Fold this sequence. Notes:
Blueprint: H1 8-13, E1 21-24, E2 30-41, E3 44-51, E4 64-71, E5 74-79, H2 83-99
Antiparallel strand pairs: 1-2, 2-3, 3-4, 4-5
Amino acid sequence: xxxxxxxxxxxxxxxxxxxxxxxxxxxxxxxxxxxxxxxxxxxxxxxxxxxxxxxxxxxxxxxxxxxxxxxxxxxxxxxxxxxxxxxxxxxxxxxxxxxxxxxxxx
Length: 106
């Protein structure tokens, strides 16, 4: 990776970047995601990402929650499958939208 190229996490955390992210699973299969929001919560950083590429078991109108975790000294985006945490992240997201004056249907 050259110095000019930013990691997907750096792109995610860059407030000026709204480009889609390309994430790879353990089988090196690429999935493209639209950035919805970055939510700091409980001393972790979560991301709400909406798949652009079709994912089996995920509806077209659904978004997924990822958390930034350090794995082998490298920051990685890991999907959150704990429903309680997912609910907390979305609740925080809706609160932020309301604070911006955006009406939200929960």
